[in-house]
Structures are given as C-alpha cells and as structure tokens.
TrEMBL record:
PANTHER family, A to Z: 2-OXOGLUTARATE (2OG) AND FE(II)-DEPENDENT OXYGENASE SUPERFAMILY PROTEIN-RELATED
GO molecular function ontology, one term from the record: metal ion binding
Name this polypeptide is given: Fe2OG dioxygenase domain-containing protein
InterPro entries (alphabetical): DIOX_N, IPNS-like_FE2OG_OXY, IPNS-like_sf, Iron_ascorbate_oxido_reductase, Oxoglu/Fe-dep_dioxygenase_dom
Iron listed as a keyword: yes
Annotated ranges, domain Fe2OG dioxygenase: 181-284
Organism: Tetracentron sinense
Keyword entries, A-Z: Iron, Metal-binding, Oxidoreductase
Recorded family membership: Belongs to the iron/ascorbate-dependent oxidoreductase family.
Keyword Transport: no
Pfam families listed in its UniProt record: 2OG-FeII_Oxy, DIOX_N
Length: 325
C-alpha cells in the first residue's frame, strides 16, 4: 500500500542503461539507483525517470503528432474508430471511455503490440488487427513504432533495476513472464475545463493500471494527473520537463505479493488548455500466469496475498468494462 508520501521522487536511471547485458550491483551507481527504485515502488508506486536516453525530439514528436490528430474534424478521426472488431485498436471519442461506470472527458487512440493472427489462440482473437494510425501526416505509424520499441527497451531495463534492488535475478520478469511483453500505448487528449461542455467530468476517473510498469509522456505546462496517498490526499504529479512519469500496475503488485504498490490515480485538466499525454504500458506476456512469486513471498511473510490471474483474461475484462454503457 502507498505510504503518506507528499511528493514523487525523481530518479536518474542512466546507470542502468550503460551495460544492459551485464548489469550488476558491483557498480556503485547502479546500486544507488536500484535502492531508489525499490523505495519508490514500495512507498509511492510512482516516480519520475530522467537520464532515460530517449531523444527529446521523439518524446515531443509523438505528442505533437497526437495533438495535430485531435485537431482534425470529428468525421476524419472517426475513420479509425476503435471497436471490438478492430481488436480494441483505434480512436475513441470524448466521453466514450468509462472508468467506474462514469464517462471520461478524454479522446484517445489505443494501440497494442501487433502479432500474427493465431499466435495466441481464441483469447488472442479479441486483440487481433493492425494498429489504426491516421494516414496523415505521413510517417505517423513509423514514429509510433519507433517510440514503442524504444520505450519497451527502456521499461525492460527499469524492471531489471527493480529486481536487482533485492538481489534477485535481473531477468526475473523476462522469459514466460514478460520476455514478450504485450505492451500497449494510448494517445490521450483532454480538453481544458474552460472549453468543456461537461464541467463535472474527469479526464480519467480514479483507477489503477493493469500491467507491470507505465511510462507517461505528458505536456510540460499543465498539471492534471493526481496520485492518491494513504491519507487519501490527491498529490499532483507536476510535469518534470524531459522526464517520464513512471508507475506500477496490478500485475507487478501481484507478482511482488503486494511489496510494490499499484497506486490509484486520476486525471483532471482544470487548466484552460488542451492537454496531451501518452502513457506507454509495459505489460506481461499475453498468456502470462501471474501469481505471487516465491522470491517476493519470502520477503513478505510467506503467505500468498493474491489469487492467480491470467494476464489476457484480466486485460480483456478491464477493456470490456471501458466500453460498455
Ligand atoms: N489502460 C488504462 N490504464 N486505461 C486507463 C484506466 C481507465 C479505464 N477507463 C479503466 O477503467 O480501467
Ligand atoms: O494522462 C495521464 O497523465 C495518465 C493516463 C492514465 O492514467 C492512463 O491512461 O491509465
Ligand atoms: Fe492510469
């Protein structure tokens, strides 16, 4: 469970990225980073990541591309509309995504890892299909693919750092667990409250994320994301230019037997400006079986605190609830 934090720590992860294949605690810089990661994952469930090596042009480029897309006329955007038959990929208009049964005041493009039809059997069919990107500007798809690949690599290295903190094997979350991450990405646009026809609606209602690790790329000049601490206070996640905001999802909460926290958060854009954010969701393998790992159980009292879930089933159940009346 999250503690009574009142701010979100900033962590420079560059020491984790210098020797990806031989990362280990003999390097004092690595040791320092993993301690900070562990502490943040335990007490806050959120942290900022700098020193990540993703070029600023790419980080801003995807946000600008998203912003330009959301400026297009409604009919144009609806050409790539998301539905169950597009594998839940594509565009969702304002107030069509729901959180806890309430309409959210955001529009979005949702994307998932692409895979060959049949790869994941009948469960996989629900998510089959290419991602739906706009035709214009040219190169939209290529930029999003580059971005997804870069964030997948970064997420994997951060996960190695998290495991190393307790002297676990750095590849604990690879192989059958998350070696073939079923990652996803959302391009999100939230109107400012001044322009909204629905002043009471939240951008995104209170929720936890589903998977392992989320990296949020958000506009620098608007504070809208808020994070719930144990005193039930909403702590604003003020943007740190050049840094990603990183948080933990339900699957890491389960795998770590509750040691690491999937913290509740929400989005309220009370500024007058339109806000763009792009969360990247680093998730388990589609078919991963997720239950408290022995490694973490030993460190959390020896008793499993969670039932086993299959990631694909968990995800599909969540997604279906997002798009029903
Ligand atoms: N993939 C996500 N984390 N989506 C945002 C969470 C909000 C979503 N409408 C839900 O109820 O779960
Ligand atoms: O827009 C944001 O800053 C965060 C979005 C979010 O929490 C989500 O999509 O799960
Ligand atoms: Fe979220």
């Amino acid at each position: 469970m999250a503690s009574n934090f009142d701010s979100i720590p900033l962590i420079d992860v560059s020491p984790l990225l210098s020797n990806p294949e031989t990362i280990n605690l003999d390097d004092p810089n690595v040791l320092q980073v993993v301690k900070k990661l562990h502490e943040a994952c335990q007490n806050v469930g959120f942290f900022y990541v700098k020193g990540h090596g993703i070029p600023d042009t790419l980080v801003k480029g995807v946000r600008d591309a998203a912003r330009n897309f959301f400026l297009l006329p409604h009919e144009e955007k609806m050409k790539i509309q998301l539905s169950a038959s597009t594998g839940y990929r594509g565009y969702t208009k304002l107030l069509d995504n729901k959180t806890q049964g309430k309409a959210d005041l955001h529009e979005s493009i949702d994307a998932y890892t692409e895979f060959a039809p049949g790869t994941y059997g009948p469960m996989g069919e629900h998510f089959e299909g290419p991602n739906l990107w706009p035709e214009y500007p040219q190169g939209f798809k290529e930029m999003m693919d580059d971005y997804g690949n870069a964030l997948e690599k970064l997420s994997k290295m951060i996960m190695r750092g998290v495991v190393l903190a307790l002297r676990g094997s750095p590849n604990l979350f690879e192989g059958d667990r998350a070696g073939k991450s079923f990652w996803s990405m959302r391009l999100i646009g939230c109107p400012g409250s001044g322009s909204a026809a629905h002043p009471s609606a939240m951008g995104i209602g209170a929720h936890r994320d589903y998977g392992l690790l989320i990296l949020v790329n958000q506009d620098d000049d608007i504070t809208a994301l808020e994070v719930l601490n144990r005193r039930d206070e909403w702590i604003p996640a003020v943007p740190v230019p050049g840094a990603f905001l990183c948080n933990i999802g339900d699957m890491l909460n389960i795998w770590s037997n509750g040691m690491y926290t999937a913290t509740t958060h929400r989005v309220i854009n009370s500024s007058s400006k339109y806000r763009v954010s792009i969360p990247f969701f680093y998730e388990p393998n589609f078919q991963a079986i997720v239950e408290p790992l022995e490694f973490y159980k030993q460190k959390t009292g020896g008793v499993s605190r969670f039932q086993k879930v299959v990631y694909a089933e968990y995800l599909l159940n969540k997604i279906r609830n997002n798009f029903v009346g």
